[in-house]
Design brief:
homodimer, 582 residues, alpha+beta, BirA Bifunctional Protein, domain 2, YbaK protein, Rossmann fold, 5-stranded mixed sheet, 17 helices, 30 strands
C-alpha cells in the first residue's frame, strides 16, 4: 500500500474524549472513527488488524473442529420468546418492528439463533459432539459505551456453540476450547492473558471463565493469589476473611437515638466496624419474597453473588417493602422480621457479640450472636472480597487487579436446547436433550486491548501477527540522490518476498513521516535516505525497541523476510507453550 | 472435514416453497435455512461458498487499489437527513429508535456512511483518486423476498466507493472497475455474465450499468440486439418502434357510447390498436403537476423511463385528479386538458390519424395528429420496448431476455459529496467537491445465481473456485476390505497436498452417499470401494460430466492436485480474457 492515498488523517494531540491510551491511539492513528455513540467505522489500517485477528481466531476454531456458519443480525421475537429472554433481557436488547409490524430484535448473542439453526439438523447421536461458530456483527444497546472499541454498541464477535451428549464430553471440549483461547491470545501477541472463574450472568449455566488481560484501565476486578495459581473475577471469587470469635455474651438492648448507619452506631458505641452486623434490604428474590442480606459491618454485599442466590438482579428495597416485614429502617436486624428471606454471610456467624438493629426506632442490640439469636437463617457467601483477604486454596493473600475481558466461555447445560425443544436419538432410539457450551471473543475489543497492552506514547507497538503491515518504508527526500527509486524498488522487492508493506511515498518531512510510522506501529521499518544510501545501505529499525542498524540495499528484502519469519516463530512458540486450560 | 459431524439435514424432495431450482437446492443441500421472511442462516457448506466468493471479490478490489474498511450496520438518522434520503426512501429503509429514543436506520447502502467516514480524512488533492470498500451485512426491508438468497432482507454485500477530481478520472476508473467485475464473475465460474446499461434508481447519477446473469428465471428484463453488441435493461433500453405515417385527415368527433378502453373503442371502430393514442394519468411530477402520459394504443408506458422524467415514482392518478384537469376518464386526450404536464411518446407523433378521447363522455376523435392538434407537448421516450423492435444502434432486432442482476456500478457524480459537504483543496488552495462512483455486488445472491446457472436435477455443479470443498471422498462399506483405512489415508494425503476435502466417513448406503455428494456439488470425487481396491485403484468422477476413471491409490493425491490446478488455470484464463469493460 502506498501511503499517499491511504484514507485517514493522523494527528498528534490526544483527543479530549479519550480516557484510555488505546482510545486515543485508535483515533490519532486513524484506525477508527465514531459514527454515533458506541458505533464506529474502521478505516483501512484498523480493518487490517481486525482481519488478522479474525484469521487467527478462525484458524484456532477450525483446529478444534469448528464449522463456520453465518447467522442473521436481525432475529424474530419468537425465537427469543422461546427461551424467555425476550422478556428477561433489558433494554440492551434492541427491539423494533419491521414494515409488516412484526417484532424483531438485533441479536446481541446467538444462543437462540444457533439452536434454531441446529435443532432440526442434528437428530442422530452419531453427529455429536459438534461445534458451530461465526464471526459476525452484533448489537448491544449499551447505556454507556467507553474506551474506543472496548465497550461499544455495534461490534464484531466470534461466537461458538458446542453440542454434546454428556456433561463429561462438554467438560473435555470446554478444556480444549480454553487451550484454543490461550493460543489465540498468544498468537495475537498477548500471551499474558489470564483465565479466571467468572459469573455466567444472563447466559445461565454453572461454570464460566473469562480471559482477562490484566491492565490498570480494565473495568473488571480480579482477585489473584500471591502464592498459588488461584485467580477469579471479584463477582465469584471466594476467599478467607478474618473472623473475630469471642465467648458469647448476653444480648443487651441499648438506646442509640438517631444512629441509623452502621458507621454512626459503632462510633457512638466505640466499637470497631467489624463488631457489627449490618442489614441491606432488596426488593425480592425470584419467588417475590423481600431479601435481607446480613453482613459484617466492615464488609460490603457482593450483588453478583447475591444475584445468583436470589435468581435475579438485586434491586434496593423501598421503605414500604422493609416496613412490611416488621423491620425498622436504620435499626433493622433479622430478629423479629417475618415474611422475608434472610441471607447471612458466614462472617456474621464466625464473629461474636455484634451490634445490630433492634427493629425499634432509636434502639440497637449489643452482643448479637447469629447461631444463638437467629439460628435458622440461610448462610451463604455474599461478601465482597478485599485486597489482602486470604486465598481460598492456600495460605496466600489475595491481590486485587483490574482486567479487560477479552474472551469468555460458558458451560450452558440444557437451558437453551431444553426450552427450544432440541433433541437427538441415541443408539436405542431414545430422545435426549443435547448439552451446550458457548465461547465468545469480541474482535474489536481485542484490537483495542492489544493496543492498550502494547504501546508507547508515540503509538501502538503491534505484534507481527496482527500488525496492519509487516514492513514500513520511509523515503526521506525522495527526489534526492536516487532515494525515491531505491525506495520504490525496495517496495517491489519486499512484496515480491511475500511481505505486507506500507510505503510512505509522500514528500513529507522526516518528522511527519516518523510520527505517522509510529502511529501505524508496524514492527520493521526501513528508512531510505541519501546519507546511508551513499554507502549503499538502508537503515532499519524495530518499533518499540532500540534495535536498529543498516543493511546493504540489495540484502534488505532478505533481511526483512528473515526478521519477520523469526518474529512469527517466536509468536508460534508462545502459542505452542499453552497446553494447560486453567 | 468429516461428514459425520457436518450439521445439516440434506433431503431429496423439492420443498414446496421453492420457485427456483437454486432455491430448492439451497435448502435440499442444507446450504441455508430461513429464520424469518427474507432472513437466512448459512450452514457450513453455504458459508464456505460465500467466503470463497468474498475472497475473489476482495482480491479483485485490492487489484484496483481498493482500501477495505468496515462501516456500521446501524446508522444515525442525521446522516440520512443530510442527503435527504431519510425522507425520500420508502419503508424498505428500516427505521427504529434506540434506548435513548434516538432515530436510527439499518443501512441498506453506505453512500452516507462512506462520505461521513471520508469527508474529514481526504482534504488534499494529493490523496485522490482513492477507493474504499467493505464486505458487510446490509438490511433492506423488502416487501417480497424471493428465490432463496436472490432477494432477501438481510444480506452480505460488497460495496465500493471511489472518489475523483474529474469526471474523466471517474470514467477511467469506472471502466477499470467494470473489468474487475467481469474478472470476478469469470473467476466465480459465470463468465457469461453480461454488462447492460441500467437505471440509477434511488442512487442518483446519470451513468449506471448492471451485470446480468442471463437466465429464464431472472426478474429483470433485458433487451439485446441480435446483430450488434447493444444490450440494456428494459428500464432504460432504447429502440426503433415501427411508425405508421399517413397523410393527415380532418379531425372528426364520433359517438362511442360506453367504449372506455382503447381495446373497446378500436374494436368498435374496426381500426388496429396502433391507430390509437391512449392516455395514462399519474398523480404528479416532482413539482406537483398531474402527469398525462400519451402513448400509442399498442404500446405500454415504461414507468422507469417516466420516473426519470418526472423525478419521482409514478403513482396512478385518482379520478378527482384527472377531473381537475378537465379530462374525462375513459375519454381523455390532451386536447382541452389544462394545468397538467403532458408527456407524449415519439411514436404518437410518428403515426397519423389516430383515435383518441374527446374529453366528453361517450365521445372520441378520429384522425388525431399530434403535431397539428397538440403542437406544444413534451416529447420523450416513455415506451416499453417489445421483442422484435429495432436496435437503436444497427439494423438488427431486439430480443427480450431475463436476467439476475449480480452486480451494479454507478457514476454518482457529486450528489452525496455535495449534500454532505465533502471537499478537498487543489494545488492552488481552492476547494472542490469530489466526484463519486459506487460499485456493488450481493454475495449471497451471487451464490444462488451460480447455483441457478450451474446445476442438474441432483444438485449444484460448483466451479472449482467457489466449491465448498475441492475434493469429495466416498468410502463404500468402510468396514470391508480395508476401504475405511485407504479412504482415511487418502483423506490425509489429499489435505497434505493442500486440497480442501470433504470425507464421507458415515457408514451409509452408496445411494445415500452419492445423493449427498451431488447435493454438495464438489467438482472431483473419489469413490473408495472394495472392487476397485482389489486392483489397487480408487475410482474418480467429475461432477456434472461423464468423465470418470480409476487411478492407483498411491497416485490419487497427485492426480487430484493436478486436476484441481488445471481447473483453476482454466478459470484464470477466462478471467484474464476479460479486458473489455463494455
Amino acid at each position: 500500500m502506498r501511503m499517499r492515498t491511504l484514507v485517514g488523517r493522523r494527528y498528534k494531540e490526544r483527543p479530549a474524549e479519550a480516557t484510555l491510551d488505546s482510545h486515543s491511539l485508535l483515533l490519532r492513528g486513524a484506525y477508527a472513527r465514531q459514527v454515533a455513540n458506541g458505533i464506529y467505522s474502521l478505516l483501512h489500517p484498523g480493518y487490517r488488524v481486525v482481519r488478522k485477528i479474525e484469521a487467527i481466531i478462525r484458524d484456532e476454531m477450525d483446529r478444534v473442529g469448528g464449522q463456520e456458519v453465518l447467522m442473521p443480525v436481525v432475529l424474530p421475537r419468537e425465537l427469543w420468546e422461546e427461551t424467555g429472554r425476550y422478556q428477561a433481557v433489558g433494554s440492551e436488547l434492541l427491539r423494533f418492528k419491521d414494515r409488516t409490524d412484526h417484532d424483531m430484535v438485533l441479536a446481541m448473542t446467538h444462543e437462540e439463533g444457533v439452536v434454531h439453526l441446529a435443532r432440526h439438523e442434528a437428530g442422530s447421536y452419531k453427529q455429536y459432539p459438534f461445534m458451530i461458530y461465526q464471526i459476525q456483527t452484533k448489537f448491544r444497546d449499551e447505556p454507556r459505551s467507553r474506551g474506543g472499541l472496548i465497550r461499544v454498541r455495534e461490534f464484531t464477535m466470534k461466537d461458538a456453540y458446542s453440542f454434546h451428549r454428556t456433561a463429561e464430553d462438554l467438560d473435555d471440549y470446554y478444556r480444549e476450547c480454553a487451550i484454543a483461547y490461550h493460543r489465540i491470545f498468544a498468537r495475537a501477541g498477548i500471551p499474558e492473558t489470564a483465565v479466571v472463574r467468572s459469573d455466567s450472568g444472563m447466559m445461565g449455566g454453572k461454570i464460566a471463565h473469562e480471559f482477562m488481560l490484566l491492565t490498570d484501565c480494565g473495568e473488571d476486578s480480579i482477585l489473584k493469589c500471591d502464592t498459588c495459581r488461584y485467580i477469579a473475577n471479584a463477582e465469584v471469587a471466594e476467599g478467607r476473611i478474618p473472623a473475630f470469635p469471642e465467648d458469647p455474651k448476653e444480648l443487651e438492648k441499648i438506646h442509640t437515638p438517631g444512629k441509623k448507619t452502621i458507621e454512626d452506631v459503632t462510633a457512638f458505641l466505640s466499637v470497631p466496624l467489624h463488631q457489627a452486623a449490618k442489614v441491606v434490604f432488596y426488593e425480592s428474590d425470584s419467588e417475590g419474597r423481600p431479601v435481607m442480606a446480613l453482613i459484617r459491618g466492615d464488609l460490603e454485599v457482593n450483588e453478583s453473588k447475591l444475584a445468583r442466590l436470589v435468581q435475579r438482579q438485586p434491586v434496593p428495597a423501598e421503605e414500604a417493602t422493609i416496613r412490611k416485614t416488621g423491620a425498622v429502617p436504620g435499626y433493622a436486624s433479622p430478629m423479629g422480621a417475618r415474611d422475608l428471606r434472610v441471607i447471612a454471610d458466614p462472617t456474621v456467624g464466625e464473629s461474636n457479640n455484634l451490634v445490630t438493629g433492634a427493629n425499634e426506632d432509636d434502639y440497637h442490640y449489643r452482643n448479637f450472636n447469629l447461631d444463638r439469636d437467629c439460628p435458622d437463617v440461610e448462610i451463604a457467601d455474599i461478601a465482597t472480597l478485599r485486597e489482602g483477604d486470604g486465598c481460598p486454596r492456600c495460605k496466600g493473600a489475595l491481590q486485587m487487579r483490574r482486567g479487560i475481558e477479552v474472551g469468555n466461555i460458558f458451560q450452558l447445560g440444557t437451558r437453551y436446547t431444553e426450552s427450544m425443544g432440541m433433541s437427538y436419538l441415541d443408539e436405542n432410539g431414545q430422545a435426549h436433550t443435547p448439552i451446550m457450551g458457548c465461547y465468545g471473543i469480541g474482535v474489536g475489543r481485542m484490537m483495542s486491548s492489544v493496543m492498550e497492552a502494547r504501546h508507547d506514547k508515540f503509538g501502538p507497538i503491534w505484534p507481527i501477527s496482527i500488525a496492519p503491515w509487516e514492513v514500513h518504508i520511509n523515503a526521506i527526500k525522495p527526489g534526492e540522490g536516487g532515494v525515491g527509486e531505491v525506495a520504490g524498488k525496495l517496495y517491489d522487492d519486499l512484496r515480491e518476498a511475500g511481505l505486507e508493506v506500507i510505503f510512505d511515498d509522500r514528500d513529507e518531512r522526516p518528522g511527519v513521516q516518523f510520527a505517522d510510522a509510529d502511529l501505524l506501529g508496524v514492527p520493521l521499518r526501513f528508512i531510505v535516505g541519501a546519507k546511508s544510501l551513499a554507502n549503499g545501505n538502508v537503515e532499519w529499525k524495530i518499533r518499540g525497541t532500540d534495535e536498529k542498524g543498516e543493511v546493504p540495499v540489495e540484502e534488505a528484502a532478505h533481511f526483512a523476510r528473515k526478521w519477520v519469519d523469526q518474529a512469527y516463530a517466536e509468536i508460534r512458540a508462545q502459542a505452542n507453550a499453552k497446553t494447560e486450560p486453567f
